[in-house]
Amino acid sequence: MRADVTYAEGVLPPATPELATLQLLVTVAETGSLRRAAGLHGISQPAVSQRIRGLERKLGLRLLERSTVGSRLTPEGVAVVDWARPVLEAARELTLGVAALRAEQADRLRLAASMTVAEYLVPGWLSRLHGGEPDLAVSLQVGNSEQVAAMVRERRADLGFVEGVTAPTGLRSRTVGTDELLLIVAPTHPWARSRRARGVRPDQLGAERLVLRERGSGTRDVFVHRLAGAGYEARPGLELGSTTAIKAAVMAGEGPGVLSALAVGAELADGRLVAIPVEGVSFERRFRAVWLPGRDPRGAAARLLAGLVSARTRRT
């Protein structure tokens, strides 16, 4: 009667043979010759014989009958070869699968970015990256900063880019850039005529119904936080989910809005919008790259991050 033996998790039984030696045995079985098997594996015949004998000792079985005309399997050898073939095939599938995953990771970059970063910064970043890696495939998911952080936590993105007062909880981060939020109005708004040069006070801004991004947006979070630091609460009159919608609403006279300087350059230049300073309050903010702890960026993600950090260092 065979005794049942339980091995600790991850520990193979002592008689477990090496895959390479099992492959040698299968080749000897298929060719009927130690010499031909040696030639196919690129080793000497004595080395093949020695490794098969070592396998026999390990298993406690005689696997081959050797003679001057060749070698053939014993009944025990036939059984071992039959068991070895699916094991070797599974090992080949494992090796090929891992290689395919590595190739996919090497040639593919999954990014997630907040709307401002995705629209105004990522295209330039990727253009420079593709200059050295033209075959790199990139996928970009866009959302507000809160949604981007969730994509990174759920491993749907290798690297995320967010705005906001602080880095998202539970993620590692690195500052890759800065910009400034601007208070913008239509040219017909009273502030455009009377406050363009000297600006508005925080209390005046706190009394206005504003056109703001939705909750979870880094633009909104920074603006609300900085205004609160001056002692006033932002009053959203209209909440919209994109920079384009906010610009259109402000130009239509819905009220003052808040957007990144990156997003309104053209409209300020041609007079469709007017930027109004806010006395005593800075709305400068950071752009951060974020990733999972213990999963530092690798491959193209690491190269992209290194390039952004290096460029920022040169600017400062």
Poorly predicted ranges: 1-12
What's the mean pLDDT score?
A: 87
Tally of distinct domains: 3
In N-to-C order, the SSE pattern is: HHHEEHEHHEHEEHHEHEHEHEEH
CATH topology of the largest domain: D-Maltodextrin-Binding Protein, domain 2
InterPro entries: LysR_HTH_N, LysR_subst-bd, WH-like_DNA-bd_sf, WH_DNA-bd_sf
Protein name: DNA-binding transcriptional LysR family regulator
Family: Belongs to the LysR transcriptional regulatory family.
GO molecular function: DNA-binding transcription factor activity; transcription cis-regulatory region binding
Description:
- The chain is of the alpha/beta class and 316 residues long.
- The protein has three domains: 19-104, Arc Repressor Mutant, subunit A; 110-161 and 293-315, 3-Layer(aba) Sandwich (D-Maltodextrin-Binding Protein, domain 2); 178-285, D-Maltodextrin-Binding Protein, domain 2 (3-Layer(aba) Sandwich), CATH 3.40.190.290.
- Helices cover 47% and strands 22% of the residues.
- The protein has 13 helices and eleven strands.
- It has helices spanning 19-31, 34-41, 45-59, 75-106, 115-120, 122-132, 145-153, 190-194, 202-207, 218-229, 243-251, 265-269, 299-315; strands at 64-67, 70-73, 108-114, 137-143, 159-164, 172-185, 209-213, 235-240, 257-260, 274-276, 284-291.
- The strands form three sheets. Strands 3, 4, 5, 6, 9, 10 and 11 form a seven-stranded mixed β-sheet that branches. The protein has a two-stranded antiparallel sheet with strand order 1-2. Strands 7-8 form a two-stranded parallel sheet.
- The chain is rod-shaped.
- The relative contact order is 0.12.
- Mean pLDDT is 87; it is low at 1-12.
